Amino acid sequence: MKGPNVDHGRRRVIQAGLASAAVLVAPRIGAAEKNPIYYGVSGPFSGDRAAYGAVWKKGMNMAVDEINAAGGINGRPVELIYQDTQSDPKQSVPVAQKFVDDERIIAELGDFSSAASMAASPIYERGKLVQFGLTNSDPKFTQGGEYMFSTAPTMQMDAALMADITLNRLGKRTAVFYQASDWGDTSQKVFVERYRSQGGQVVALENYLLNDKDFHSVLSKARRAEPDVLVLFSYYTDGALLLLQAQDVGLKGKMLAATSCYSNKFLELGGSAVNGTVMSVLFFPEDPRPAIQKFVQAYRQRYGEAPDQYGARAYDAVKIIAWATEHGGASREGIRKAFISGQSIPSLLFGSFKFDAERRVSHYEEALITVKNDKFVYFH
User: Is the pLDDT of residue 15 over 60?
Assistant: First the structure.
């Protein structure tokens, strides 16, 4: 891979029981007497990952309001039915059955984690209901059936890119910390193999459980190895805690985190400890492209804050599924056929794209950012 373009850091990459009741977004459309078009959303709206779900709702609700204000889809308003799973496979499965059994729902968006989505995939496949994974990076997700689609880069691509950034921009002696999950384990293996193959040294390799709160032991062990770089395959909660506690034990070095740490919560929880952290992201609000700036301005006006990539992904996913409904018809099979046949699907993040044979986006661009003075900025 080529190194990231330092002019805004953008680079093109080729892609290889329920916690709460459902919540509906009320249609805002003049033709409200027409039957609505319903999509189901399965995601973490409570629990440890609730901040992701809250941002999803902001992006999705904004997209729905724009669609309905413009007349809906062929005159029909759009409504979203939200179900909270806490991104837990045990909860995503009954949600999937509820969505499949509801004949009004013609597509599903989510879940947040690949594990939660993949546990539910067999139900969506049997129900012939498109499962649109906007953040599902596990390549096995789209291998679960003909109705699984994703706009997320795979964990292999993300981890390989992180290895390149680390070696080319940060240092040659690395300590890697990763969640003891399928995502964390697979990502670290890809990272380590690529990093070592190009001459890098992994001097510490430490895993932890997602619900762990005390990392002092593994951090102290890594400190003794004297790394140049700390690499985190973490979410915003555990990532922020790791860096806070790294200060406690005197572990220093440049820092690179997975894109899942790109959240305002990472800044809030980590404070000054996360300053200097580098990460690559699909979306950054300072991107000068007109479509991006139009979205950012509208989001700021509505919510009083800049969107992060999860708000942008959620907004984009609703617009993409609406496009498929308009072009393929308001039916489960119509959406699948539109996704399969679409050659220039409009997208905020990708400009336009098509799904490849793996039912993923065939190309994407990422921005390289860092935390400076408690804010996300471009990394140069």
Answer: no
SS3 108: strand
User: Could you tell me which of 72, 74, 83 has the C-alpha nearest to residue 27?
Assistant: 72
Angstrom distances, CA of residue 276 to CA of 36, 124, 267, 281? 47, 42, 11, 15
**Which residue(s) pair with 204 in the sheet?**
175
Mean pLDDT of the chain: 92
Identify the structural domains of the chain with CATH numbers, from first to last. Answer: 17-153+289-357 (3.40.50.2300), 155-281+368-378 (3.40.50.2300)
Residue spans of beta strands (DSSP E) within the chain: 11-14, 23-24, 37-43, 78-84, 105-110, 131-133, 148-150, 173-179, 201-208, 229-233, 254-257, 277-281, 345-347, 351-353, 363-372, 375-378
Tell me how far apart the alpha carbons of residues 159 and 205 are, in angstroms, rounded to a whole number: 15
Q: b/e per residue, 187-213, with b = 16+ CB within 10 A? A: bbebbbebbeeeebebbbbbbbeeeee
Let me know if 22 is exposed, middle or buried by CB neighbors in 10 A (0-12, 13-18, 19+).
Answer: middle
Closest CA to 191 of 178, 181, 180: 178
Residues 6+ apart with CB under 8 A from 16: 139, 154, 156, 157, 358
What pLDDT does residue 3 have?
40
